[in-house]
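Q: What does the predicted 3D structure of A-factor biosynthesis hotdog domain protein look like?
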Amino acid sequence: MVAGTRELLSPRGSDAVPERDGSNVAGILPDEVHKKRPENVWLHSPVRESPHSMRSHFAIPSRGQTLRFAELLEVQRQLGILQAHRQLGVPDNAVFVLNRIALKFVTRADVQSDGGTIRAQIVATSARGRPRSLSQYFSIESPSGLVAVGSARASLIPQMVYDRVRGLESNASPPGRSATRSVFGYESALHVDSRDPLLSDHPSDHLTAMQAIADVERVALLDLAAARIRTLKLEFYRYAGLLPAPLLRLNISAQGKLDAEITQQGARCAEITGVIDMKNGER
């Protein structure tokens, strides 16, 4: 846990940001949501609702199929990053260390690719007036009303500190937290699809939350033709490097309860739990 006093930091900026070269139509630079290409910025028309809340419209590029749960989590991730930069003044070179991310549908309705509205509220823990960790709470709405709620927790560390920590981790043996002994129905190297724009436009030297969630969703729904993930929570315990490939273990109960873990060299790196709507799914 990052030490510091719990306080609301002073916001920065105004409600609107002028369009700039390289930004999407709403004036959001890809770097502000940790992307490289403007077409992968799915937010538009962001508005500051209060010093610590923001809303934005979003639209997800249609691929001719039902939206993935991971794509809605990507919308949540993008607004969380944007809010931290614009409202709290988190510097561009700060490293966001995601500890936890979760999203839960509150209705059986699905979100369409033409999108809706997402809102975020932020609370920051600080030390010496600088944000050290963030807790954020999200709501996703469609024209018919509230669809889903989410949350995220992240620590903020300078790049030089991150580089030092990563160097120490790479030279150290795995920590005491080991993989569980539960029986998992699926066990294989975690797959990252380099052709997926959700994943390919967010370079990283370690496994990201979106990479983990996308593969969990892919595996979970392989044999469930029309099932949908309705709740998912991911919690990180330590970094997972890109090599050797992390191992994904996953199990789904007959009632649709999802349990998964990601390990690397015998150490548990992340745990994922969720609920799948099995009503229309077929094993």
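A (community wiki): The structure tokens above were generated from the sequence. The radius of gyration is 19 Å. The helical segments are 69-88, 159-171, 197-200, 209-220.
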